């Protein structure tokens, strides 16, 4: 049974990565402003102020100033998008099974993704996305570290 679970996790990781690439880079994201220079695009599509976007969405959700699906999709989506990574990475790469290395790996990965989205104009650089993605990944990591999951896979 243990070997079957490990094979399923490895196969599901491939599907997860494909889904991430589609969500982050391929889908219609509505950011392709061809009339702006890259520098102008970077200025208008970047948020380096922590909790600015999160606060905007929470306020819009509470005061109903925006379609409620937009803040829910953005906040919950960013949170859950990297939760599986907290399980997959320590399972597949034993060297990052410790919290410190996992956190460092996620910082590098998430920073890389945010920069690529910005440079390719397939999204924006938003520190709040980074925060929500990291929280999701850390919760996934905590799930990974539970005795039940460890017993299941060892």
Automatic annotation (TrEMBL):
VanZ-like domain mapped to chain residues: 13-146
Q: Which InterPro entries does this one have?
A: Teicoplanin_resist-assoc, VanZ-like
Q: Which domain of life is it from?
A: Bacteria
Key word Amino-acid biosynthesis present: no
Could you list the residue ranges that cross the membrane? 7-26, 75-92, 99-118, 130-148
Q: Translocase: is it a keyword of this entry? A: no
Keywords for this protein: Membrane, Transmembrane, Transmembrane helix
Concerning Pfam families, the annotation shows:
VanZ (PF04892)
Matching entries from PANTHER family are given as:
INTEGRAL MEMBRANE PROTEIN, MEMBRANE PROTEIN-RELATED
Name of the protein in its database record: VanZ family protein
The source organism is Virgibacillus halodenitrificans
């Amino acid at each position: 049974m243990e070997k079957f679970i490990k094979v399923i996790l490895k196969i599901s990781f491939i599907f997860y990565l494909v889904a991430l690439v589609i969500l982050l880079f391929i889908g219609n994201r509505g950011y392709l402003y061809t009339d702006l220079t890259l520098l102008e695009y970077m200025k208008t599509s970047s948020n380096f102020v922590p909790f600015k976007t999160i606060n905007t969405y929470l306020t819009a959700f509470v005061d109903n100033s925006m379609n409620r699906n937009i803040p829910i999709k953005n906040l919950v989506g960013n949170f859950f998008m990297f939760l599986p990574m907290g399980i997959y990475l320590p399972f597949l790469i034993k060297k990052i099974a410790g919290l410190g290395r996992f956190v460092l790996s996620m910082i590098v990965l998430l920073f890389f993704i945010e920069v690529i989205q910005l440079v390719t104009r397939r999204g924006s650089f938003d520190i709040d996305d980074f925060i929500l993605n990291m929280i999701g990944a850390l919760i996934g990591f905590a799930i990974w570290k539970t005795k039940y999951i460890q017993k299941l896979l060892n």
